[in-house]
Amino acid sequence: MGAPANVVRLQPVGVEFEVEENETVLDAAFRQGIALPHGCKEGQCSACKCVLTGGEVELKKYSTFALNEIERGQDYILLCRTLAYSDLEVELLNYDEELLSKSIPVKNFTGTVTSVSALTHDIRHLEISLEQPLKFWAGQYADITLPGAETITRSFSMANSPVEGQKLAFIIKKYPNGRFSSRLDGDLAIGTTVGIKGPYGTCFRREGRTGAVILVGGGSGMSPLWSILHDHLGSGEVRPVHFFYGARTRNDLFYLDRFAELAAEHPEFNFIPVLSHAADDTAWDGAKGFVHEVVEAHLRDAAYGEDVDVYACGPSPMIEALTPVLHMNDVASDRIFFDKFTPASN
C-alpha cells in the first residue's frame, strides 16, 4: 500500500487538492481539474513559479534560467518539478480566476492517425481520431506520444474547434532531425495508434469581452490561433478581429484562400500576413518586416487602449519582441494571452 496523499493548499485562492507520492504538484492539479498557470511542464519556462510557505518538498531537475539559486534559497519553487513530502502551503505569484473556473481535468486518450499532409515545405497538418471526445478550450494543447522502440512525446496545440473534440487536427512545424516531426513525412502511417493526454494551456479564447481581438502568430503558432479564430467566429460575437501572421517568404504562407473566404463572410475580420525576408520580392505588395513591428504600427494607429484582447502564439523570439510593444501601447496585462513555443528538451 502506497504512502497517503499529501494535501496542497493554494493561496490566496484557498484551493486544496491531493498530490500522490512521486507525482508533481502541477500534475496532481491537472488530474483533478485545477488549471494553474503553466507553460513547458519541464522546468524550463518559469510560468508555474510560486513560493513555498509551508511544508517539505523536493524539486526534480530544472533549468536555472527558470529558477535561479537565489530564488530557490528564498523558497521559490516550480510546480511542474515539485514533489510533496508533506502537506504544503503555496503562494501563487499569479493566478487567473477565469482560468480556474474553466478547469478541465487532464486525461489520457487513445487515438488513431487518420491523415498527414503538407501545408508548406516545413509545415504539416496532422489529424488524429479519438476513441472518446477530448473536451478543451480553443487555444489549448495536448501531449502526443508516438509508439516505437523509443516512445516520443511532444506538445502540440489543437487547430480544430472544440466542438470537434473527437477528431483532432494539429499544424506542426518540421525541424531538422526533429525526433517527432521527422516522422511526419512517410514514417507515421495512417492507422498508427498514438497516445493523447490533455488538455493543457492557458492561452485559450476568453468569451464575453468587448473591443477588438488581435491574433499574432508565426510558424506553427497558426494551430491554436486557427482554433481560436473559428471558435470566435462560431460564437456569434461580433468584434473586430485582426490576424497578423509572420513568415519569412511567400513559400511559408498557407490557407490564403481560406482566409479570403473568411474575410468575405465576416467583414469585421482581417488577415495580415507579414514577410520578414521579402525585401527583394517586387511581386509581394503585402506587409514586410517583422510581425511585431506591423502589430505596433496597427496598435499605434488604432489606439485601442485597454479595450482589446491579444492572443500571441509562436516561437520565443517573436513573443519576446511583441511583449514590450503591447505594454507600450497600453494593452492591459490581463488581456494578453501568450503561448510561447519552446524547443523540446529531449
From TrEMBL:
Domain 2Fe-2S ferredoxin-type span(s) in chain numbering: 6-96
UniProt keywords, alphabetically: FAD, Flavoprotein, Iron, Transport
Domain FAD-binding FR-type: 106-206
Pfam families assigned: FAD_binding_6, Fer2, NAD_binding_1
InterPro entries: 2Fe-2S_ferredoxin-like_sf, 2Fe-2S_ferredoxin-type, 2Fe2S_fd_BS, Beta-grasp_dom_sf, Cbr1-like_FAD-bd_dom, FAD-bd_FR_type, Flavoprot_Pyr_Nucl_cyt_Rdtase, FNR_nucleotide-bd
Gene Ontology MF terms: 2 iron, 2 sulfur cluster binding; oxidoreductase activity
PANTHER family xref list: NA(+)-TRANSLOCATING NADH-QUINONE REDUCTASE SUBUNIT (PTHR43644), NAD(P)H-FLAVIN REDUCTASE (PTHR43644:SF1)
Protein name: CDP-6-deoxy-delta-3,4-glucoseen reductase
